[in-house]
Amino acid sequence: MSGVRYLDEFRDGSIARGLVKRIAEVARGLPVMRFMEVCGTHTVAIYRSGIRQLLPENIELISGPGCPVCVTPNRFIDRAIAYARRPDVTICTFGDMVRVPGSTSSLELEKGRRADVRVVYSPLDAVEIAQQCPERKIVFLGVGFETTAPTVGAAIEVAAKQRVANFFVSCGHKVMPPALTALTADGRLGLSGFILPAHVSAIIGVGPYEFLASQHGLAGVIAGFEPLDILYGILMLTEMLSEGRPAIAIQYRRVVRREGNPRALDVLQRVFTPRDDDWRGLGVIAGSGLAIGPAYAEHDAEANIHVEVEPTKVHPRCRCGDVLRGLCRPEECPLFAKVCTPEAPVGACMVSTEGTCAACYKYGRRLQEGQNNG
Ligand code: SF4
Questions:
Q1: Residue 109 C-alpha to ligand 1 middle, in angstroms?
Q2: pLDDT averaged over the chain?
Q3: pTM for this one?
Q4: Whole-angstrom distance, CA of residue 336 vs CA of residue 317
Q5: Maximum distance among all Cα pairs of the chain, rounded to whole angstroms
Q6: Considering only CA atoms, which residue is closest to atom 3 of ligand 1?
């Protein structure tokens, strides 16, 4: 955005009003356009800033599978719980994963039953714990997209180099472009374009998204997280569609480069290998996951620590799958805000602050109450 340099300016009301007006002008007379965001940070920003309510009727924003904790299926969590139940295992994980319900338990519940479950802030913390506790098997839960996978890959390399044989990763990392292919193929969504994930794009760059425009005629904009970034991204999407020239563009130029981050991509290449993977709500998507490659197989928890994983169950009325596919808004789930709340989450989308249901609960309801109160 030219002429906008400081944080306050990215929240400037008069610039926002100008962008909203311009979006309405460009969108006038066009068919309905449906833009999906596939990044949890965008989902939160959209709910918090009330951008949906500012757009013309023919522009619809849909939240997709952008929250890494949310798209991690029950089977992965059940496996983590099975590891945690072994007396010789310590689970290390980022905080959100602890509260995600599995089929019949959660890591939080297991911790209450004396399982050794620790929240860490970096996978390297888990390597350090492994060095301090050589008699235990330390299992780090590798969850997240291309953004977090390089740091986990780097930790695996450190463990291998320092011969920390009791450090393992349960690998649930996912990559975004194959999920976009799956969403594009879902005719029920009728998508016109994507607000593309900024953090993921800072790693992978623009190239992996080009197929959206060249093969499917969809527009894509890699947008930043401030309200003006998102509005500007929506304007860019609308302009591309109104001019009939869908393409992949970068709005978030202060962070994202067309080529991405070559050093992080090198780590991914060295440590991981692509595999078909299961996404909550989207099912198994070809080439959408990362497995630990043969060079580092001794650090792969799945290959080295045997556990029996219980049969998968989901709450019969939970609609997390439909929420993640963009087929249902959180308020349309019968459990939303009645049975399922951030304090007592039934589904994964209510656990992480980046989950669509959690964002809607926190900000969408406040907005609605504000509107009802005039
Ligand atoms: Fe799942 Fe709860 Fe959201 Fe319903 S409200 S879709 S149960 S997270």
A1: 20
A2: 94
A3: 0.92
A4: 10
A5: 68
A6: 357
Q: Which two tokens stand for residue 240?
A: 């591309």
Nearest-atom number in ligand 1 for the CA of 334 is 4
320 alpha carbon to ligand 1 midpoint, in Å?
5
The pLDDT value recorded for residue 3 is 43
E-state strands within the chain: 33-37, 59-63, 89-93, 116-119, 137-144, 167-173, 193-196, 219-222, 248-250, 272-279, 283-292
From 350, 352, 361, mutation site for ligand 1 pocket: most ligand atoms within 8 A of C-beta: 350
Question: Which residue lies with its CA nearest to atom 8 of ligand 1?
Answer: 347
pLDDT tens for 267-296 read 999 999 999 999 999 999 999 999 999 999
What is residue 11's three-state secondary structure? helix
Is 70 exceeded by the pLDDT of residue 11? no
Please provide the DSSP assignment of 81-102 as one string: HHHHHSTTEEEEE-HHHHH---
Mean pLDDT of 37-44: 96
Tokens 């304090």 belong to: 343
Count of C-beta atoms within a 10 Å radius of residue 3:
6
3-state SS class at 276: strand
Partners of residue 361 on adjacent β-strands: none
Q: What is the pLDDT of residues 41-95, one digit of tens each?
A: 999 999 999 999 999 999 999 999 999 999 999 999 999 999 999 999 999 999 8
Q: How far is the CA of 65 from the centre of ligand 1 (A)?
A: 14
pLDDT-derived band at 195, boundaries 50, 70, 90: very high
Q: How would you label 181-206 residue by residue, b for 16+ Cβ within 10 Å and e otherwise?
A: bbbbeeeebebbbbbbbbbbbbbbbb
Q: Taking the chain, what is the end-to-end CA distance rounded to the nearest angstrom?
A: 34
Token couple for 25: 């002008």
Q: What is the pLDDT of residue 14?
A: 87
Which amino acid, residue 204?
A: I
Ligand 1 binding pocket (C-beta < 6 A) is 318-320, 323, 330, 333, 335-336, 340, 346-347, 349-350, 357
- Could you give the dihedral angle defined by the CA atoms of residues 139, 143, 145 and 149, in that order, rounded to the nearest 10 degrees? -10
Report how far ligand 1's centroid is from the alpha carbon of 83 (Å): 26
